[in-house]
Write the structure tokens for this entry.
Amino acid sequence: MTRTPDWLADAVFYQIFPERFANGDPTLDPPGVEPWGGVPTRENFFGGDLEGIIQHLDHIESLGANAIYLTPIFEADTNHRYDAKDYFSIDHRLGDLSVFRRFVEAAHARGIRIVLDAVLNHCGDGHWAFRDVIEKEAESEYVNWYSVEGFPVTAHPVPNYRTCSGCYYLPKWNAYNPEVRDHHFSVARYWVEQGIDGWRLDVPYFINETFWREFRTVVKGLGEDLYIVAEEWREPEPWLQGDLADGTMNYTLRDLVLGFTADRTIDAVQLADGLNTLRARIPQGFHAGMLNLLGSHDTERVVTRHRGDDSAVRLAYGLLIAAEGAPMIYYGDEVGLEGDNDPGCRGTMPWDRREWNEPLLEHVRDLVALRRGWAPLRRGVQHARAIGHDAVVLERDLHGDRVTVIINRGAAPVDVDVDGHIIHGTATRSGSQLAVPANGMVVVAHREGSS
């Protein structure tokens, strides 16, 4: 049976948008760089770089995170870098290959793995191959690397070449061309050779599955422990048949959790049913590879989605940490950073601790430590059930050892019949009955053979 790399069962991810995390080397700042802490736009730069990440690995490690997912870092024109100009070069505003190698070495020394963004559906209109097509037109040796309808190549008012979602500066690769596939597979090999531990596949649903099967063969041929996770917003099953990916970004889980804690569009019965249904949809052997998230560079911030309700945010994190799959924290969410969807969610990480929501940070740290300290929370089989309309119980069972997480979003305490001792939170006990407080979370552990 195909299974995900074993290390994923114990993984806690931290996602970084490199341009906005930390400015560690101001000599790399581009012209017009804006002061740290300014309002993010789709065009501006604040000077975040790889050196900044290296300098703040202590913070990431202190969260208990042991894996980092970086959005694109290759040479590009934009701050998000989903418009690669050269997949074999680190963007000059982030550093160079030597800095990247030092970053990987420093992370690995702390037991932190690195996953990069594979943006292989499209490149930027500044990519050397696309520029060659613009210049030489039909005579370019790269003309069939893209799908160009005519010459001259025209970007406005409507591109006469295939793009990503109609965006003129993101020409789409022709993945049916074997030369393009060879280029992409060389990219995959090269960065694995530089020490990375996996790839996140950007908009993989825009490329044929044959390509991704070959991609998986190439990557897994370099190491079975290398992680492949697909961006997917709706249907995870097609990616989890053993020939494409090890997991998907679990936006379905996100919708369930935030529907319960933030929007209150679903009750506990619907949440429990949704969690159990989702688990049943994921093929056996792939649950640990799911990348669970509350927010990302493509969504509004967690605190913003909860309209600043700290207690609701805490409950959402409780569900994230309790759920089967690898939890991921988007940089800044752990300290209460706010922001609407792109570009608002891509603000700079505040490094002045006076701006941090310290109680939230400690809550997240405590939950991650709880997960890392109790094997059932990492490797146990999950089952959910509802207690009324406002409380949900998540049980994680590992060979009879069980950790039970009770989340109560209601305005009144709720009684839950559960065996074991409390390892997180407070509750009044009467025999096997626990009275879980309003807007509260309690975690109970029960070991096989204990009374």
Summary: The chain is about 30% helix and 20% strand.
